[in-house]
Amino acid sequence: MLRWGVGLVVFDMAGTTVQDDGMVLECFVAAAEYVGLRVSREELNDRMGLSKIAVFDELSRRQVGLGRDEEAKALRDRGYEAFCQVLEGAYARAGVAPIQGAEATFAWLHAHGARVALNTGFYRRVTDIIVRGLRWEDKVDAVVCVDDVRQGRPAPYMIHEAMQRCGVHGVDEVVVVGDTPSDMHAGRNAGARAVVGVTSGSHTASTLRRQPSTHVLPSVRELPEMIERLGRLKR
């Protein structure tokens, strides 16, 4: 554990540690348009970080209306299947790249005795495509995706699963880092010592400050300095 009392940092992936440049949002938009799901780009962006199938479930039920569960389920499944195909194709074409400074931050945390975990609203196949593409299997201590828990963000379960896999017992030893409101709410719901928003992804600093974040940074590059400052504060 870091001498400052941080034993684990749980990072989001796309937009936080993995370059996104709006690709995931564009995949959402394309899939929604393909199946005729009426939703704005802004509404989809607001739902970044959530379980992808849960997003399609919510929006399908809204569009179809009450009492038409089978129709809503069919629309959800078509939308989610289209999203998966578009997303996997996009990663196959574009490849994956880390956010600048992410790997150095992982190394700094390990050098100071903290564990590093990734968590994501992606399903396992895409999660593994990204981790293998970045060759991060040996650079992080745990990778948790939405398939590993009963409920994705804003529920805290992916963070708690990361704690279990990393052998960290106290939420006051945990720092959560992400680029979406759902990351901030999951960190707050987990009881994390610090919940850090980064503006390298889908949301602005002003949006993240309106969420239950404790800190907002330009990117994960600034995290080591922030943790050092955190350690100088009384717990």
Q: Please outline the major beta sheet.
A: 6 strands, parallel
Question: How is the largest sheet built, in terms of strand order?
Answer: 3-2-1-4-5-6
What is the CATH-assigned architecture of the largest domain? Answer: 3-Layer(aba) Sandwich
CATH topology of the largest domain: Rossmann fold
Mean pLDDT: 94
Radius of gyration over all CA atoms, rounded: 18 Å
Helix/strand order: EHHHHHEHEHEHEHEH
User: How many β-strand stretches?
Assistant: 6
Strand percentage, roughly? 5-15%
Query: Could you tell me how far the N terminus lies from the C terminus, measured between alpha carbons in angstroms?
Result: 15 Å
| SS element count, helices | 10
CATH homologous superfamily of the largest domain?
HAD superfamily/HAD-like
Shape: globular
CATH class of the largest domain: Alpha Beta
Unreliable spans: none
Q: What is the structural class?
A: alpha/beta
Helix content: 40-55%
The number of distinct structural domains comes to 2
Secondary-structure map with pairings?
Elements: E1 8-11, H1 23-35, H2 41-46, H3 52-64, H4 69-94, H5 102-111, E2 115-120, H6 124-134, E3 142-145, H7 157-166, E4 174-178, H8 181-190, E5 194-198, H9 205-209, E6 215-217, H10 223-231
Parallel strand pairs: 1-2, 1-4, 2-3, 4-5, 5-6
Helix pairs in contact: 1-4, 3-4
Could you explain how this protein is built, in words?
The structure is a single chain. The chain has two domains: 8-19 and 97-231, HAD superfamily/HAD-like (Rossmann fold), CATH 3.40.50; 23-94, Orthogonal Bundle (DNA polymerase, domain 1), CATH 1.10.150. The chain is 48% helix and 11% strand. It has ten helices and six strands; from the N terminus they run E-H-H-H-H-H-E-H-E-H-E-H-E-H-E-H. It has helices spanning 23-35, 41-46, 52-64, 69-94, 102-111, 124-134, 157-166, 181-190, 205-209, 223-231; strands at residues 8-11, 115-120, 142-145, 174-178, 194-198, 215-217. A six-stranded parallel sheet has the order 3-2-1-4-5-6. Helix 9 (205-209) links the parallel strand 5 and strand 6 (215-217). Helix 1 crosses helix 4 and helix 3 packs across helix 4. The relative contact order is 0.19.
